[in-house]
Amino acid sequence: NWITQQWEVIVVGAGPAGIIVATRMAEAGQNTLLLEAGGPSYGITGGDLDGRRPARTNLTRVDVPGLFKSIFDDENGLVCNLNSYGGCTVGGSSAINAGGHFEPPASDYDLYFPLGWKSKDMQNATRRLYARQPSTNLTSRNGIRYLQSGYTAARKWLVEGLGFEDIDINGKADKKTEVFGHPVFDYADGQRGGPTITYLPAALERSNLQLQTGVKVIRVERKGSQVTGVAALINGVMEFIPISPKGRVILSSGAFQSPSLLMFSGIGNPRVLSRLQLAGKLSPTLRSSQWIKLNAVGRGLFDNPHVTIALEGPDIEDYTYSYESPSPIDKVLYLQNRSGPYTFASVTTVFWDTLTRPDGSVAGLQGTIDSSGPPRQYLFSEDLTPKQYPMMGQKLINNAVGNRHTVGMNIHGTSGMKSTGNVVLGKDFSCGPDSNVYYSNPKDAEDIASFIHKIFRGLSSSGLTPVNIPQNATQPEIQTYITTPSYYTSGTSNQWSSSCRIGSCVDVNTTVVGMENLHVVDSAIIMPLSVPPQFGIMVAAERASDLILGMIEERK
Ligand SMILES: Cc1cc2nc3c(=O)[nH]c(=O)nc-3n(C[C@H](O)[C@H](O)[C@H](O)COP(=O)(O)OP(=O)(O)OC[C@H]3O[C@@H](n4cnc5c(N)ncnc54)[C@H](O)[C@@H]3O)c2cc1C
Fold first, then answer.
1. Is residue 98 part of a domain?
2. Which atom of ligand 1 is nearest to the CA of 90?
């Protein structure tokens, strides 16, 4: 019985980090239980989604990259309220994201990570990831690139006009200044990849790894600094799942849930712990003398500040992906040949730049161009009050109608941004971000505005015109625009990280400070990167696996 047997390792959360760390533990012979609150996702996990699979296939819309935006329109069990800023399903957010797969530059590790996590320390882990996880910047089996009108115009603008270098993005991963290229996706043969496809199936064939879905861990149970197991809700019933005397628990529940689980386990800011105790949320057997007062839990939460700019041009043809009524030609092209627009998640173009500030620190900046534009009729509508809800940008772009000559450009602040927030517990004790995440340090807005101002200078040569910001806007005007809430400037980027940092919340071995056998391995432990985070999270999970296995070996 998996609930009562004593596991050597329990991993909480089957997102990209959890799947990788559980796989590596099992491969090293550890009896491993992987717990996931959500349910199936990809076809191979038994996902079905209302029985609306494309006919005679084992595909769900998770598998079909071009359907990724449809997931947010119809939050059909893949985005549960447990983790409202991402996927709550096998694969975590890797099952619902755009699949962008970008190796961080060595400078991210060398500048921002602690000793033991510098670029030379990450080389083996990176190599192992490349060996296991295929990726491509040409997604269509027939070798044709689709929906390229935005790419062509942007290339004229940024490469021919402004001198950005057109590169193979992961081939030259260390270059992040004035570079441009095709996005790299973690897909293979026109279908979504990621660890659910590349790590999990082989791991599940082992007798010493068990995946249990529909299990929501509530807290870790512990005696002082020793975890004894986890308390979890299974079919609405609270159960205790023990670990062996030398066992370990690894939290891989994501940038919100991992810090939150620590708090519910009596580890965190004492004021928060008192509140939880008063509400009866802490373990009844945990005395307050055993609390671990650790203010770093939840502190440093990062997400990329961003702005969407609609770009209009006579040669632009935007495209609307649809789950309910896809273009018949494109549907056949996909189902019969794994070719066409549905082989990728709408982003056609990526570019990066850096800005060195007077104090020598560096701000990272990223742009992407989508294949469709935000809906024109919303652009100047005043009766629409901005609402801060997850995935708003994607919902809007997905609803694009009307003008067929617009693409959406997303500009993000990345590594070196100075604003961070905290994971906080709301009135109902669910976790979320505080208001400090974006622009609490005005320098970030200044840097992003400088970048937009810089690139706008070359825009007219491409035939593109910005719709929601005047092309001749001054840098201060752009700064005001991006910090004023609107459909284009509010909402999350959903690239959360850095809320349980190495060195303050966990040590260099990923052990929670003050604990002996409790780890955090996921987006919470990585620093803000120059690239979207999933690649770096997967490498961190590979690196953490080595470190944890080293500790297990030492204790033998
Ligand atoms: C819409 C969207 C688009 C994105 N696009 C990209 C992109 O193109 N490229 C990129 O690099 N990144 C992208 N990201 C970000 C990326 O997907 C995440 O950074 C990454 O998935 C985080 O991995 P993780 O393992 O830390 O956590 P998660 O992916 O959040 O996985 C955590 C898992 O733990 C489970 N869990 C949580 N709490 C519990 C609990 N108490 N008990 C049991 N299970 C629990 C959750 O259900 C979830 O499955 C995107 C994210 C979103 C939402």
1. no
2. 49
